[in-house]
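To: structure subgroup
Subject: Chain for Friday's discussion

All,

I'm putting the inputs and outputs inline so they're searchable in the archive.
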Amino acid sequence: MEITYRRNHSSRSGYIDGGLDATINTGTIDFKWKNNTQSPVYVFTWVDTADYTVVCEIYGEPFPDTFDTIELSSELAETLPAPETVYEVQSWITQPYWMKYKSAKDGYIYKTYATYKKDGTVVETKEIATSKYNAHALTYYVWPGFLPGTALDPAYEIIQNADGSTALANPALLNPPVSDAQVQ
């Protein structure tokens, strides 16, 4: 089997080591391979709901006599530090309010290897892929006229709710306490 197109996810997946993933997104990104043998290939896939796994078995020609197993592995080759903080001006935000849009995240480069074995003994190891997971900057939404370096007061943070709506992290700002001096 020959892999003709593979792209890793944009971020490392929690369910598999970096460099061992392949993105499938119907109509856009797809993991593609072709049968470069002289025999038909049969692919069986199913979901194991008890183990929460997807299983894929591929049947075709037997391996040549030189190996009987192929094992995939990966190693972290490089950590890419998150870029500097980004402040994006949003016209709907007024001073001194702000919103954390995206957390900072380091990126990574992984090397992926195929190890060919015969009776448990390594015959050959080949590097077969390099996967890059991009780093992301800490990103804040800020008001027009914001000057980088201006402190963002946590009391004025806007948060995004699960339904996409926004709210103040400190709702007391909507109904500030009334002092005795204001009552007179």
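Points worth raising on Friday:
The first strand starts at residue 2 and ends at 5.
Helices lie at 180-183.

D.
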